Amino acid sequence: MATGLYSENIEVGELKLQEFIQNKEEWAVLIPGYLHHEFPNEQDMIWVFQGDFGIIQKAVKVELKYKEAAPNQVMFDLVGLSDPINGDGYFEIKQNQDGTCQLVGNLTMKASGFLAGMMNPILEKFVPPLVEQLVQKMAVKASI
Is the pTM of this model over 0.85? Predict the structure, then answer.
């Protein structure tokens, strides 16, 4: 199972950061390789992005199915629509003692089916930098 966990300190108020992570439209476009997104309903989101898996570049379509969470969290299950890849993840805001905030992003992905043996090692190299880049971009955009 491939897991990426990354956090970034941000000099922005907690309420502003909460509004940012709760507004999926604001950060949906920030995923590395972003092609487009759609909202099949009010809660869930479908991301389509170009994944660079070493020698293979492929458009990947995944649905983020949102779970109930606190105002300082966005939690979701991930369902692969173009490939048998599933997982889960979250974005969370933690208040630092100096008044700044920390944005934490976590994503876990696992391939299943016929190509799982080949895909899982690729995902292990792909997921950590994806999470790092996404959280860094979210931190910059939230600070504006």
Answer: yes
